[in-house]
TrEMBL record:
It catalyses: 2 D-sedoheptulose 7-phosphate = D-glycero-alpha-D-manno-heptose 7-phosphate + D-glycero-beta-D-manno-heptose 7-phosphate. Homotetramer. Pathway: Carbohydrate biosynthesis; D-glycero-D-manno-heptose 7-phosphate biosynthesis; D-glycero-alpha-D-manno-heptose 7-phosphate and D-glycero-beta-D-manno-heptose 7-phosphate from sedoheptulose 7-phosphate: step 1/1. Gene3D superfamilies: Glucose-6-phosphate isomerase like protein, domain 1 (3.40.50.10490). This is Phosphoheptose isomerase. The gene is gmhA.
C-alpha cells in the first residue's frame, strides 16, 4: 500500500464511522442537547471532563459554550475540569489521580448541573469516579464513549444519556466525539436563538 492509499483509508474509515454513528445516535444527540439547554435555562452549568484528547474535547466544548460557537450570543455556563493544573496536580498528589475530576465535581457541582463525561474506552477510572460524584450531587450525566461503552455504560442512571460511538479505533472515536460536540453546540444555539 502506498502512502496516498493509507491516507485515503483514514478518510474512508472516518466517513464510515460518522455515517454509522449518525444512524444510531442522532435522536440521542438531540435529547442530550435538550437536556443541556434545560440545565442552562435552569441556572445550571455543564462540567466537562476527560483525559488526553478527551480533555482537549472537554476544554473545546467549554470554550464553545462560554465564548460562542457560530453565532453571537451571551456566554453559557460551562467549565472544563481538565484545565486547572494546580487543582489537578494537588488532587493527584495529595489523594489519587482517579479523584482529579470527582473532587472538583463534589466542590463545584449542584443538582441543576450536568456532567459531560468523555472517555473513548468508557473505562477511564477518573471519569467513572466523576460520574459517581455527579450522581451523589444529584446531577445528570451525558457520556461520550466508544467501543462497547465500557464500565461507564454500566453505571449510568436511567436519566443519563450515553452517546457511544460504535467503532473500536480510538482515532475514529475521537473524530466522531468532536463532531458530536459540534452538533450539540449547534443544537443548543438553535434552541436558544432559532435560525435556519
Amino acid at each position: 500500500m502506498d502512502l496516498i492509499e493509507r491516507v485515503n483509508g483514514h478518510f474512508l474509515e472516518s466517513i464510515a464511522a460518522k455515517q454509522e454513528t449518525m444512524e444510531q445516535l442522532s435522536p440521542a444527540v438531540a435529547a442530550a442537547a435538550e437536556r443541556m439547554v434545560a440545565c442552562l435555562m435552569n441556572e445550571g452549568k455543564i462540567l466537562a471532563c476527560g483525559n488526553g484528547g478527551s480533555a482537549a474535547d472537554a476544554q473545546h466544548f467549554a470554550a464553545e459554550m462560554v465564548g460562542r460557537f457560530e453565532k453571537e450570543r451571551p456566554g453559557l455556563a460551562a467549565l472544563s475540569l481538565a484545565t486547572d493544573s494546580s487543582a489537578l496536580t494537588a488532587i493527584g498528589n495529595d489523594y489519587d489521580f482517579d479523584m482529579v475530576f470527582s473532587k472538583q465535581v463534589r466542590a463545584l457541582g449542584h443538582t441543576n448541573d450536568l456532567l459531560l463525561a468523555i472517555s473513548t474506552s468508557g473505562n477511564s477510572a477518573n471519569v467513572i469516579e466523576a460520574i459517581y460524584a455527579a450522581h451523589e450531587r444529584g446531577m445528570g450525566v451525558i457520556a461520550l464513549t466508544g467501543k462497547d461503552g465500557g464500565k461507564i455504560g454500566e453505571i449510568l442512571s436511567a436519566d443519563d444519556i450515553q452517546l457511544n460511538v460504535p467503532v473500536s479505533r480510538t482515532a475514529r472515536i475521537q473524530e466522531v466525539h468532536i463532531l458530536l460536540i459540534h452538533a450539540l453546540c449547534d443544537a443548543i444555539d438553535y434552541m436558544l436563538l432559532g435560525g435556519e
